[in-house]
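**User:**
Everyone, produce one record:

**Assistant:**
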Amino acid sequence: MVEPWTVDGGSDRLARFVAKQASVSFNQAKRWVGEGKVMIDGQVVTKAGATLSVGQVVQLRMNAPRQRAAGRPRVEIVFEDDHVIVVNKPEGMSSVPYNEGERGTAMDAIRDAWKAQGKKSRGVPIHVVHRIDKATSGLLCFAKSKRAELGLARQLREHTMEREYRCVVHGRLKSGTIESELVRDRGDGMRWTARAGERGRRAVTHVELVEELKAASYCSVRLETGRTHQIRIHLASRGHPLVGDSVYLRDWRERREPIAATRLLLHARVLGFEHPISGQAVYQVCEPPPRFEAALAALRS
């Protein structure tokens, strides 16, 4: 067992902290965390992005048994034909593999669903159209043919695909449009809005207040562009980080206590587009799942 490390600096994410202390690559540290070999204050934590605070004790146990999932998570197929498939992805599932050998993604879950239905799964292409964050639940679209992939990609480029999210943010948020340029690294490894003189990628988010809650706001968000972490960055940069976020809450956490939540309160509720082959309108709505609704109900009370 490796000697424990005490967090003595500013807040950091777990895998990054372990990588620094053990002098290994970030990917190696992330694997250790995912395998249940890392503890915070005596409790096993398998979330690589967990935020650390000063005074916490982190321990690496190389001989700890590997954590095994109780079963591969499932997706709900809400629309499918020969060219397009739309699924309702649960929180905690990656849209696509981000690391070599990663399993349990939405693409894997689709093939699992096909097998359960007695359909052919091997050799059937699944082309990536767009992604939603691992911690985000909701509607996600893939193409099953190259022609469909190109048609859907064009709609994304031209901003004609309709995407509406529901989220809960800290504080009182006013309806409006947020527009900025986003950069991959603001200087500390985090994506953020570009500062004066910096060049980034244009991002536009339309926000509408749905309901005022105690110290929070329930919002509808429509994406005009679709940059990585766009909603989370835009709202956090305006002083309203999402409830349950463990990354873009860093600046907020330094000034005040965040609202506790068991998940990121962000859900992809609506997905609408023109079918790339038939030209017919495809419009799907999936309301937030039970854990999201339970957190929302708690904030209402």
Notes: The domain at 5-60 is CATH 3.10.290.10 (Structural Genomics Hypothetical 15.5 Kd Protein In mrcA-pckA Intergenic Region; Chain A). Helices lie at 14-22, 26-34, 106-116, 146-157, 230-237, 250-253, 290-300.
